[in-house]
Amino acid sequence: MASEAKVSVRRYHLYINGEWVGSSSGRFIPVMDPSTEEIIAEVPDANEKDVNRAVAAAKAAFDSGAWHETTAQERGRILFRLAERVRKEAGMLAELEARNSGKPIVEAEYDINDVATCFEYYGGLATKVLGHVNPVPDNALSLSLREPIGVAAQIIPWNYPLLMAAWKLAPAIAAGCTCILKPAEQTPLTALEFANWLPEAGLPPGVVNIITGYGESAGAPLVLHPDVNKIAFTGSATVGKIIVKAAADTVKRVTLELGGKSPNIFFADADFESAIDGALFGVFINQGEVCSAGSRILVEKPIYTKFVEAMAAKAKTIRLGPPLERETKMGPLVSKDQYDRVRSYQEVGKKEAKLAAGGGRAASMPKGYYVEPTIFYDVDNSARIAQEEIFGPVAAVIPFANEAEAIRIANDTPYGLAAAVWSRDIFKTFRVVKAIRAGIVWVNHMQPTYVEAPWGGYKQSGFGRELGPSGIEEYLETKQVHINLNEQPIGWY
Ligand code: ADP
Ligand code: MG
């Protein structure tokens, strides 16, 4: 009976002003395990009324003394306590993340470790935000003070659920902002579990609020709300463009990370075994649901045929399986929508290029949103599978004749998030690194991401930088203060 089945489904609430509350509509969104297609939880379907409550709480917390007057040291300690708690609960968080997102448990464990590291990093950085003394030519002291922007709305995607929450919350808390976080409707669970630990870490009520809901009904009113001062968004380019337009009316500060179609470039002199590994890792890690996925694989002609064959042979050995099994190297896609989207690109690819591996549903997995790791080759860079972000395990291999052609193809995309170059020739490598229009360029590797180093894109991959010292900059305003030291009238009139 449906009512009995429901008993095992955990019901979550909204986290507003330090309390767990229901949504005003009383409606819920089902949350799935994409490997079994079963509902594992329900979260509130928040709407504009709930958003208004959360923004009011965040604004009150920002305006009130309690948060405003915390010292940077105190905010740092709160972040360290959160990191400690995440490390203590890492097993539970990784398991929940893997169950809800479909990612392999081993990858989820890396993610949760990165979550804790992110809180530690910004915990340390909280006390290193410095202003300036400006060398003005008068008898005056001119200061630049750094102050929190205010209320930040943070809208995140489903591919790295708690990690994306950490990338947004940690620098905002360090800077002294208050936040409303909206997780993706598909993967809200780890952020909600995390919220349980905010009070004991010492965070005053209202500093962090969590609203679950759909983009149109919970995300859009956040973007329009006049009391929200900043939007930090990670997600699709389509929604990023909607957000920039919607934020214009109230001149919100906006940072965007919108994914890409990143080139992974292999010259003939690269170490062959490392290259094959790097090509597969670049595009298939996290089922290819990665904004920086190396989804365009550019290969120099002398090694091209051998490369495609080796890549395809190894791709066929990638172990698909349930996310919670430690041997699993690829889990299901996050949702039915995403599965349909990736399946349709597999069919588009079959018309546009040649198929070297995969190309369909993973037949070995009877249930769940599994697709085969798929490799197309002889892809023209103008093909849809080379221009459009698929966000799944679908690689487009493109041959190139020389360095100039590699650069031309690499940059022939509206995106500019990431790229990688594989070669043993440092002169050629660095010429290519300089010529590529992307915010992140890896050499002889692809995907390592560190909280210490800036992350963000060129072109339509967005603007602003997360992580590193730039991550906190995006939550700070600059106030210029001029202190006159002449104890006499101006004497103008
Ligand atoms: P995808 O289509 O892959 O789910 P989206 O860019 O739609 O990627 O989703 C990223 C995040 O943006 C999610 O939290 C989603 O709910 C939110 N979102 C979607 N549409 C809007 C919108 N119109 N305004 C604000 N947020 C939105
Ligand atoms: Mg969407």
Describe the structure.
The protein is of the alpha/beta class. The chain is 39% helix and 20% strand. It has helices at 2-7, 48-63, 65-68, 72-88, 90-101, 105-125, 161-175, 189-195, 215-224, 237-248, 272-284, 301-315, 336-352, 384-387, 403-411, 426-435, 468-473, and strands spanning 10-11, 14-16, 19-21, 28-33, 38-44, 132-134, 140-148, 151-155, 178-182, 208-210, 230-234, 253-257, 263-266, 296-300, 354-357, 374-377, 394-400, 418-422, 440-443, 462-463, 476-484. α7 links the parallel β8 (151-155) and β9. α4 (72-88) packs antiparallel against α6 (105-125) and α5 (90-101) packs across α6 (105-125). The chain is globular. The chain binds adenosine-5'-diphosphate and magnesium ion. Magnesium ion (MG) binds next to loops. Residues 215, 236, 239 line the site of magnesium ion.
Question: What's the layout of helices and strands?
Answer:
Layout: H1 2-7, E1 10-11, E2 14-16, E3 19-21, E4 28-33, E5 38-44, H2 48-63, H3 65-68, H4 72-88, H5 90-101, H6 105-125, E6 132-134, E7 140-148, E8 151-155, H7 161-175, E9 178-182, H8 189-195, E10 208-210, H9 215-224, E11 230-234, H10 237-248, E12 253-257, E13 263-266, H11 272-284, E14 296-300, H12 301-315, H13 336-352, E15 354-357, E16 374-377, H14 384-387, E17 394-400, H15 403-411, E18 418-422, H16 426-435, E19 440-443, E20 462-463, H17 468-473, E21 476-484
Parallel strand pairs: 1-5, 8-9, 8-11, 9-10, 11-12, 13-14, 13-18, 14-17, 16-17, 18-19
Antiparallel strand pairs: 2-3, 4-5, 6-7, 7-21, 12-20, 15-16
Helix pairs in contact: 2-9, 4-6, 4-7, 5-6, 6-7, 11-12
Bound molecules: adenosine-5'-diphosphate and magnesium ion.
